[in-house]
Amino acid sequence: MALTAAKRARLSRNIQYLILVAVVVLVASLANWGQIGHAFFNFGFVVEDSTFLPRLVQAFGNTLLYTALGFILGLAGGVFLALLKLSSVAPYRWISTLYIEVFRGLPALLVFIAFGYGIPTAFPGLRLDTYVTVMLALGLVSAAYIAETIRAGLQAVPAGQMEAARSLGMSHSRAMVTIVIPQALRIVLPPLTNEVILLTKDSSLIYLLGLTASQYELSKFGREALNGTDAGLTPLVVAGVCYLIITVPLSLLSRRFETKTARIKK
Known about the structure:
GO terms for molecular function: transmembrane transporter activity. The protein is an all-alpha fold.
């Protein structure tokens, strides 16, 4: 007797589940759990080293600070670039497009090197503060991505909103600032939240600047902690968990924004 389409689909799913369970059991049986525990989950050193947790909290705070600095500059620059790209003045559009394409095409690693070592080389005697360098490097890169997000959000606002504002006597600039941009920001909240997640991870590139111990972010802290303990890669695991503490809630927040935006559109 031939199976119906629904029964074939159910049978196919069951077979896939069995294969997945078999693979998991096989991998679990072959793994050296003692070695894995010692290399990745040996948390005894946290109790033995009384300075570990204070340094971890400091690195966690630095990561948040670096991310915030980059996002503030990136958001301001992104709005400015988006307005330039939508301008009726052609040179403004060319400048914005050139900037966006260059900084979206360059790896953030090269931007950090340029600000950390290129500027002092090109301008002897000019040495930027670490926090200023971080803000510029992260902010200029994120501005290119945020600009395209903001531009799409501005274009998603119905043209009738601008027309209605102009009919009430508002100038184009005032209507853009008070009517269009606030609506566009509500639309682009989900991708902006994702940009914060990317900035959080890109902050790990700050190690190129030659930080002091008090300026370490989570990644640098985890790597340096490896030298002072025999707990294997556990410090990096701890740093990774801290990154997840930051990024997972942001991911959930982004999905919530997406849900609310979808409801508004309906």
